[in-house]
Specification:
Pfam families: DAO. It comes from Thyridium curvatum. Belongs to the MSOX/MTOX family. By secondary structure, the protein is of the alpha+beta class. The chain has two domains: 221 residues, FAD/NAD(P)-binding domain, CATH 3.50.50.60; 217 residues, D-Amino Acid Oxidase, subunit A, domain 2 (D-Amino Acid Oxidase, Chain A, domain 2, 2-Layer Sandwich). The longest helix is centred in the first third of the chain and has 15 residues. The structure holds flavin-adenine dinucleotide.
Length: 447
């Protein structure tokens, strides 16, 4: 679709950052086309990847394209009077054990890149475990001695980039949804999932909902996040997998003590620890994670089936809690950096689903075989921060106007190796059914 116009009707499947941002971009550029955003639920979608208490906003990337785009998006968030109240610029610390491995290289590249950009003034260096610990707990706080740790020390040295921030992702998505509602050309159909894309003679003609209703459109965009492989054959380019997240309620004294801490992340162990927000702290582990392999009808040929992983969440399984081994992993990590919380009950937990590509590059491209069908997915653990600009880029892709470097990077084609844009720990992605745990069952060990 190379011309700078759009068909009269556009369907967007998915009201996460890709879908909402694109709906707004279309409405702002072209008031006439009727845009229908369809989601399983009403935004902010509780189990959608874009909805959470916090997301990191950072602009230091080894990849210059993401770095430039992230810096632009961050400036837009800071200048946006409705997003600004949900944005907290408290810095982000990147800590390493210093032991060799691919993530040590990512850590080194991140620091070198920051310094090469002349941003040394916004960096605080931590040269010892004591300095790392005190950046979280305040001057004079002492980390546990080696004799009290069951494992080799992991929080040894690092740096904090004071330019980085976190944002309340749920409230920001609410802002974005409400902006869409104000646009006369955008309507929402929430509550009934899309069953499949309608395809006639190699052309997408809209969607069929799970209740059998058919909705027609001249252009259909699949922005269904980790659910996307259910609707388009992504040929293994994305892995839908989930990582563990937990929340711990804090006392007023703890909130006062930690309220100015930075997001604190360990690039060897994958732990992310967030500053207090609304009386609680969030922790997550960028572990290899879990998948939920199921057999589904082939999206392009319903007479065939396809094996793929799609999210299993608390919407369909309300009593699910994170696997036992995931809980153990989070607590093990807290023992060294946040010892007073290591045995505190979790208020709640969840598995957060990612649509992850091998290189962490997104897929924003026309479907190679089906006319009138576009895809915007593969957010890979780092797409949220692009919320203010990603919709315009999707629209540029629809018009085949993306600069060549972005068109190539986001092509509907197999991706390359991980370049450290959103690194996850390496290892086997486990089948969730073997580890699933319900709050009704109590603790079931698979260690
Ligand atoms: C634990 C975790 C931490 C992260 N941290 C960061 C971070 O700090 N910074 C950052 O920039 N990024 C981060 N990310 C990545 C970022 O959150 C995602 O890349 C981004 O939110 C993905 O958005 P999306 O629109 O693709 O998916 P989603 O938000 O999941 O939206 C997809 C929508 O499609 C809907 N849908 C699916 N199937 C159907 C159907 N059949 N019919 C109708 N609707 C359907 C779903 O209900 C959902 O609302 C993180 C991700 C995770 C998992």
């Amino acid at each position: 679709m190379a011309s700078q116009t759009l068909p009269d009707s556009v369907i967007i499947v998915g009201a996460g950052i890709f879908g909402l941002s694109t709906a707004l971009a279309i409405a702002r550029r072209y008031p006439d086309p009727k845009v229908t955003v369809i989601d399983r639920q009403t935004p902010p979608v509780e189990d959608g990847t874009s909805v959470d208490t916090t997301r990191c906003i950072r602009s230091v990337y080894a990849d210059p394209d993401y770095g430039r785009l992230a810096a632009k998006a961050q400036r837009m968030i800071e200048a946006d009077p409705e997003l600004k109240p949900h944005y907290f610029k408290q810095g982000m610390s990147f800590i390493t054990s210093g032991r060799p491995g691919p993530l040590l290289e990512v850590w080194k590249k991140g620091l070198a890149h920051l310094e090469s950009q002349g941003k040394g003034g916004s960096v605080v260096h931590m040269k010892t475990p004591e300095e790392v610990f005190q950046r979280v707990h305040g001057k004079g706080a002492e980390p546990a001695p080696d004799s009290k740790l069951s494992k080799e020390r992991s929080w040894n040295y690092g740096y904090c980039n004071l330019e980085d921030a976190f944002i309340d992702a749920k409230e920001s998505i609410r802002v974005c949804y409400e902006r869409c509602l104000e646009q006369p050309s955008i309507t929402f159909r929430c509550g009934v999932p899309v069953h499949r894309i309608s395809i006639q003679n190699g052309r997408a003609t809209g969607v069929v909902l799970e209740n059998g209703e058919v909705l027609a459109a001249g252009l259909t965009l699949v922005a269904a996040g980790a659910w996307s492989p259910r609707l388009v054959d992504l040929e293994g380019m994305i892995a839908s997998s989930a990582i563990e997240v937990a929340w711990i309620k804090l006392t007023d004294e703890e909130v006062a003590k930690w309220k100015n801490m930075s997001i604190t992340t360990n690039l060897n162990t994958g732990l992310n620890l967030f500053p207090p927000h609304k009386g609680e702290t969030k922790i997550l582990r960028r572990s290899p994670g879990y998948k939920n392999t199921v057999t589904v009808p082939h999206p392009e040929d319903p007479s065939k089936t396809l094996q793929t992983s799609i999210p299993r969440t608390t919407v369909s399984n309300p009593t699910d809690v994170i696997p036992f081994e995931a809980e153990v992993g989070l607590r093990d990590q807290l023992r060294e950096i946040m010892p007073s919380l290591a045995d505190r009950p979790f208020d709640r937990t969840k598995l957060c689903w990612l649509s992850h590509t091998s290189s962490s590059d997104f897929i924003i491209a026309p479907h190679p075989r089906i006319q009138g069908l576009h895809v915007a997915t593969g957010g890979s653990g780092h797409a949220w921060k692009f919320l203010p600009i990603i919709g315009d880029l999707v629209l540029d892709s629809v018009h085949d106007k993306l600069p060549k470097n972005l068109k190539d990077k986001w092509a509907y084609a197999p991706k390359g190796a991980d370049m450290g844009n959103a690194s996850m720990l390496r290892g086997e992605i486990k089948e969730l059914r073997d580890y699933v745990r319900s709050s009704d069952d109590g603790v079931r060990s698979r260690l």
